[in-house]
Each structure stands twice: as structure tokens, then as C-alpha cells.
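Quick one, C-alpha cells below. Sequence please?
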């Protein structure tokens, strides 16, 4: 059995371009599907996939570890950069999809079988336009409560919101009060039995992140995500040590070495490695084992397309320290026209039972993908009130 082609297929889905990776073999009908979506870097990732293809043509797709090593270590530059790592991830996921299809079992069976009966999913509420935080009165946080209530009505027992505004390295009480008002509105709307997560999007400095974390600590958050830049691992450790709320981070880290440093200083309680950026299944399984050794939970970052979600769920059914799956279900109305999924989400509780189909358990409609060709993503920019550049 040999790989005959590796093809990136782009599907525009409003906010982002999904990058699907199709690995074709010389066995009739045997293909594998992966995903390598990276917002605002679509053409860079497609180029990286095309650069990697010559390394793999003619190779046996079942040699997943060998091919991962080849992609990571060859061409002189190790696969640490985000575009190269994302390209490797998409191809690796597709190779494991092929391995499952060859064996006739779901991917999670390849790694020891399911360790749980179901996985809980959560949704993302968003949080309005960031510039509104500087103009809207603190008292007017009802939009967050209304969105929270809608999520509960849809069956979710957990949700996430970007309730923290972008801030300069040091600011006064105004942004802290706005974040607290938003979280208070959500907690008042859904009560104590629903899990609330808050995503800072790594906008704050360590000092501001610490202030936000302390202000929101009394609200019993399930986790507080990316309270400062991911490169500031000492700052993350300081915040994590100062509050009882579990700190989550990791979506912007690519390599095992990055996670080793993060875990060693106690920078988080929850690891959010993204399977489409950290080396696919092969990379994520290394990271999960390291996290388990530090008693750190896994809750992978997953706001991308349907192949990424299928991969995150397969991964979750095989990992004992996996706690919850981020899900996207209403980004585009034709999402399920592109992919037929091997799992069903139960409306009550929004839980997923194990897929029983081979590989990722999905089928991709390439004709439907062609209806949504590449479009340049809209630039997302943030400026502070004084006109200086902030973090999106």
C-alpha cells in the first residue's frame, strides 16, 4: 500500500477557511481525511502541505509514527512553526483515519479502546464586539445572561464566553468591572449547576490577567482560559497559584517542549492543545501523556471544522484525562452538507456516544466543498482607546 497524493481542499465557512487534507492511496476507494485549519494563514498552510507531500509520496500510510518523524525532522527545520506544525497535524490525522479504515475500527480502538461511555460538549457564546466594552455601561451586561440562557435551552450544561475585554498592559477598574458584570449576569441567568468558562483570548498582561482572575474567582468558573500571553509561562503560573479557578491554556503552543515547560512551572490545570496545530493525533497523544504525568486535564481547543471535531472526539474517547469537548454547531447552516458524521449529539446534555464507524467515522462531500471556495478572511484588529495596537 502506498500514498499516491496529498491534497488540501479549502472550504470557506464565513469566519474562517476550513482546510481539509485528503490523503489518497493506491488501494481503490481508500482515502484518509484530516484538517489543518489556521485562521488568516490559509495560503501559508496550503503551501506547507504541498512542501511536505514529496516526503510522503510512495510511502506506506500505515507507518504513522515513521511518517510523523519524517515530516517533523526532515527539510532541516523541525516542525515547530505554526504553519508547518498545522500542516503536519492535518496529514497525521488523515493517516490515522486510514489506519482505522484498514483495521476496520474507529481510531480510538487503535489506542486501547474507549475509556468512557460518553463525552460532554460545550458551546461558545461569543461576547459581542470588543470595542463595546469601552462604551457600554457596566450595568448593561444582560446580553451575556440572555446568551447563556439560550445555550441552556439548547441542552448545554456548559458554555464559554469572551467576557474579558482587551486591555492595555495596565488599566484601572473599568475593564475589571465590565468582566465581572458579564460573568455575574451569566451566573444569575443559569444558576450554580451550569458550568461557565471565560476566555481571555490571551489579551491581558500577566498583571491584568491576575486582576481578572481574582475578580472572577468567586463565580465558580469551570475554567479561566488564556489569562495572559501563552509565552508568559511564569505569569500563567503566578495566576494559577493565586486563584482557586482552574487555569486553561495551550491552544497556541505547538511542540511537546513548549508543553513540558508550561507543565513544569505549574502554568495550568487544563491543557488545551489543538489537534490541528500540535502534530495531530501523534503529537497530541505525547502531550496528553505528559499532562497525565502532571495530573493536568485535557480539554482540546476545537473551534474549527467538522473533521477537527471528529478527531477531538476520537481522541477524547481514548484519553483518561480528557474532560470536555469544545463544539461548533451553528457557524454555517450547511455544515452537515459537507460532512456525514459517525456520531450523534444527544440534545439533552449535549453529550456524544462513541463513533462505531472505521477511522474518524466521517464521509466528506467534495462537491459541497467546491460550492464554498477560498475567500480572504476579514482582518480582525484591536486597538486600545489611545490608538495603540492590541491583541485580537
Amino acid at each position: 500500500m502506498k500514498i499516491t497524493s496529498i491534497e488540501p481542499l479549502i472550504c470557506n465557512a464565513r469566519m474562517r477557511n476550513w482546510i481539509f487534507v485528503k490523503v489518497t492511496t493506491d488501494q481503490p476507494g481508500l482515502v484518509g481525511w484530516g484538517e489543518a485549519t489556521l485562521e488568516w494563514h490559509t495560503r501559508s498552510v496550503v503551501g506547507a502541505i504541498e512542501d511536505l507531500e514529496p516526503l510522503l509520496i510512495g510511502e506506506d500510510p500505515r507507518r504513522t509514527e515513521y511518517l510523523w518523524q519524517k515530516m517533523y525532522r526532515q527539510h532541516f527545520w523541525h516542525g515547530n512553526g505554526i504553519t508547518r506544525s498545522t500542516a503536519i497535524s492535518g496529514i497525521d490525522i488523515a493517516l490515522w483515519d486510514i489506519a482505522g479504515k484498514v483495521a476496520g475500527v474507529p481510531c480510538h480502538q487503535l489506542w486501547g479502546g474507549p475509556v468512557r461511555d460518553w463525552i460532554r460538549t460545550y458551546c461558545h457564546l461569543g461576547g459581542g464586539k470588543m470595542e463595546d466594552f469601552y462604551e457600554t455601561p457596566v450595568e448593561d451586561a444582560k446580553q451575556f445572561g440572555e446568551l447563556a440562557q439560550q445555550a441552556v435551552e439548547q441542552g448545554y450544561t456548559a458554555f464559554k464566553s469572551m467576557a474579558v475585554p482587551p486591555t492595555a498592559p495596565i488599566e484601572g477598574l473599568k475593564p475589571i468591572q465590565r468582566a465581572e458584570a458579564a460573568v455575574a449576569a451569566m451566573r444569575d441567568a443559569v444558576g450554580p449547576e451550569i458550568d461557565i468558562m471565560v476566555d481571555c483570548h490571551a489579551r491581558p498582561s500577566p498583571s491584568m490577567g491576575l486582576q481578572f482572575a481574582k475578580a472572577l474567582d468567586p463565580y465558580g468558573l469551570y475554567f479561566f482560559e488564556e489569562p495572559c500571553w501563552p509565552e508568559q509561562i511564569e505569569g500563567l503560573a503566578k495566576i494559577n497559584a493565586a486563584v482557586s479557578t482552574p487555569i486553561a491554556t495551550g491552544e497556541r503552543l505547538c511542540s511537546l517542549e513548549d508543553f513540558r515547560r508550561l507543565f513544569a512551572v505549574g502554568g495550568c490545570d487544563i491543557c488545551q492543545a489543538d489537534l490541528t496545530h500540535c502534530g495531530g493525533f501523534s503529537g497530541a497523544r505525547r502531550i496528553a501523556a505528559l499532562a497525565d504525568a502532571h495530573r493536568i486535564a485535557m480539554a482540546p481547543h476545537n473551534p474549527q471544522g467538522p473533521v477537527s471535531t471528529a478527531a477531538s472526539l476520537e481522541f477524547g474517547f481514548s484519553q483518561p484525562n480528557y474532560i470536555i469537548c469544545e463544539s461548533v454547531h451553528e457557524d454555517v447552516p450547511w455544515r452537515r452538507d459537507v460532512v456525514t458524521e459517525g456520531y450523534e449529539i444527544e440534545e439533552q446534555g449535549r453529550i456524544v456516544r462513541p463513533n462505531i464507524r472505521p477511522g474518524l467515522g466521517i464521509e466528506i462531500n467534495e462537491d459541497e466543498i467546491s460550492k464554498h471556495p477560498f475567500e480572504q478572511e476579514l482582518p480582525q484588529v484591536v486597538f486600545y482607546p489611545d490608538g495603540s495596537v492590541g491583541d485580537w
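The first helix runs from residue 42 to 56. The chain has two domains: 3-105, 109-359.
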